[in-house]
Write a structure and sequence with these properties.
The protein is of the alpha+beta class. It is 63% helix and 13% strand. A 6-stranded antiparallel β-sheet has the order 2-1-3-4-5-8, with helices on both faces. A two-stranded antiparallel ribbon has the order 6-7. Helix 6 (182-195) packs antiparallel against helix 7. The protein is elongated, with a radius of gyration of 71 Å.
Length: 435
């Protein structure tokens, strides 16, 4: 945030100035002229008078004398009986093009000891000059300074108007400089007064600068020192407390991390429990749906059984009515018939059981014969295979034996599997020889 910089210095009906403005470039101004040309009086008018409103003679004179008072700059050397004059200083913020003006008005009367004093501030953007607020009014071709009452009406802001030198200093500090303690602002003004001293550059050595700075600073009282010591002790206590808080924060972080892990574990457990409960709920819902379906089926069956019961009851009543209509003789005859039928059923059941036993025996005999048949068939196949092998051996030895027709008959007999007793004997001999 930028600071306020001096932009324009103005005088109205003050000392030798009827109406004069001095532009200040970027907070800097240079006044040059011959000796006794009024440079010191011009600078002392706003450093420091326009900054704090203190009009004591020793404050106005750079040499510290009490020769000339403020009445001289307003009334001159017995030239006027009464006079009203203004001094104002305009500030500007370059980056924001904001303007703020502080000023002092005074009215002096010959023979009256006290000068009427008032201070003002323009903080609403208005500027003093052409096109803005004018500190004078035209009457009879002359520019007459505004009275205190008329200017007060133009200001319109009670917080920017004062008739006390102390209140004016506080208002300037608040609107322009912004020191938290008014004593700091007093130290700034005192430093400006010391720098304003005439012929300062004649003996401007480091020791003089140190002396100047020491003189510009306010002496610290015991209260100030006690407050400083108390503040330093509080700072030490705060530092110890801060270290304690830091250790506590470290411990709290450890606890937080462990607690987060615990929370994550518990959250996982609860999530698992939730999923299990959700599965159980879904399973129970399915069971409920199945149970509801089963209940519906049972209710339908119950309705069917109830209907059957009702129909059975109806038939029972009809049977009872028929029994009553039939009488006892018909019942005896039916009982005898039922007994005979039961005996026939018993006899037939016995016959059926005997037939089943015979059938079981026949099946067992068939099973044994089938086993024997399979055994014989296997033996027959083995025998045929052996005969075929012997036949091949005989064919191989046919040339050696040279038996002629008799040999051929044997061979054909073997091939036809029709051998007589001699041939069988010969075949046995051949088998014995082949072994």
């Amino acid at each position: 945030m930028s600071r306020w910089k001096m932009n324009k210095l103005g005088f109205l009906n003050f000392w030798l100035y009827d109406q004069e403005e001095f532009p200040i470039h970027d907070g800097h101004i240079l006044l040059r002229g011959n000796n006794a040309a009024g440079k010191s009086i011009t600078t002392q008018s706003f450093v420091p008078f326009i900054l704090d409103g203190d009009k004591r003679p020793e404050r106005l004179d750079p040499f510290g004398s009490r020769d000339r008072k403020m009445e001289f700059y307003l009334l001159g050397d017995n030239e006027r009986e009464e006079s009203t004059g203004y001094l104002y200083l305009e500030f500007r913020k370059p980056d924001a093009e904001e303007y703020r003006t502080i000023g002092v008005g005074m009215r002096a009367q010959r023979g009256k000891r006290e000068i009427d004093f008032w201070g003002f501030c323009l903080r609403d953007g208005r500027r003093i000059g052409s096109g803005g607020l004018q500190l004078f009014e035209q009457m009879g071709g002359q520019n007459l300074p505004l009275s205190k009452r008329k200017l007060h009406q133009l200001i319109e802001d009670p917080s920017c108007w004062t008739e006390s030198q102390t209140a004016y200093k506080e208002m300037v500090n608040k609107q322009i400089f912004g020191f938290e303690d008014i004593r700091q602002y007093d130290q700034l003004v005192q430093l400006l007064i010391m720098v304003r001293a005439p012929k300062l550059s004649k003996d401007f050595r480091p020791t003089e600068v140190k002396k100047l700075l020491n003189l510009s600073l306010q002496v610290l009282t015991d209260d100030d020192l006690s407050a400083m010591v108390s503040t330093m002790e509080q700072m030490d206590n705060l530092e110890d407390t801060l270290h304690g808080y830091q250790r506590a924060m470290q411990d709290a972080r450890i606890i937080r991390n462990e607690y987060n892990r615990y929370n994550q574990y518990i959250l996982g457990r609860k999530g698992q429990a939730y999923l299990e409960a959700r599965s159980a709920v879904q399973r129970l819902r399915n069971q409920l749906r199945d149970a509801e379906g089963l209940r519906g089926n049972l209710e339908r069956q119950l309705d069917e059984q109830s209907e059957r019961k009702r129909q059975s009851g109806t038939r029972l009543e009809q049977a009872r009515a028929q029994r009553t209509a039939m009488g006892d003789d018909d019942l005896s005859a039916k009982s005898a018939q039922l007994k005979q039928v039961f005996e026939n059923c018993t006899r037939l059941a016995a016959q059926l059981e005997q037939g089943e036993n015979r059938l079981q025996k026949l099946e067992d005999g068939i099973s044994r014969r089938e086993v024997n048949l399979r055994t014989l068939t296997r033996d027959c196949d083995d025998t045929r295979a052996a005969v075929r092998r012997l036949l091949r051996e005989l064919n191989d030895q046919n040339e050696l034996l040279r038996l002629g027709q008799e040999h051929d008959q044997y061979v054909r007999g073997l091939q036809a599997e029709r051998l007589d007793t001699d041939q069988q004997a010969l075949l046995a001999a051949l088998r014995q020889r082949s072994r």
